[in-house]
Amino acid sequence: MQINSVSLGAQPTASPEKAQLEKVAKQFEAIFLRQMIGTMRQSGGGEGVFDSSATDQFRDMSDARTADTMAEKGALGIAEMLLRQYESRSPAAPAAPAPGKSA
């Protein structure tokens, strides 16, 4: 019985280009999550007694770290979907010749 991994992190990277694509896709997912969390915070209610610009800055840094962690773990799967879409539209690389055979 063969079990294939769905997670991008468990798969070995085939090329430097694919590794770069994975990195950029995760960064995009992190930016998306930061925007989503920020929007959720803005709609969350009024100011509290202890709110200040320092509290807001700390909350923003905490939200950014949370978004980065979620993106690294592939929480929403946006990066994986972007990679699948890119791979389906990119031309397939030519197959390498078998070892011991000349081209």
From TrEMBL:
All copies of domain Flagellar protein FlgJ N-terminal, residue ranges: 39-85
InterPro entries, A to Z: Flagellar_prot_FlgJ_N (IPR019301)
Top-level taxon of the source organism: Bacteria
Protein name: Rod-binding protein
Species of origin: Sphingobium tyrosinilyticum
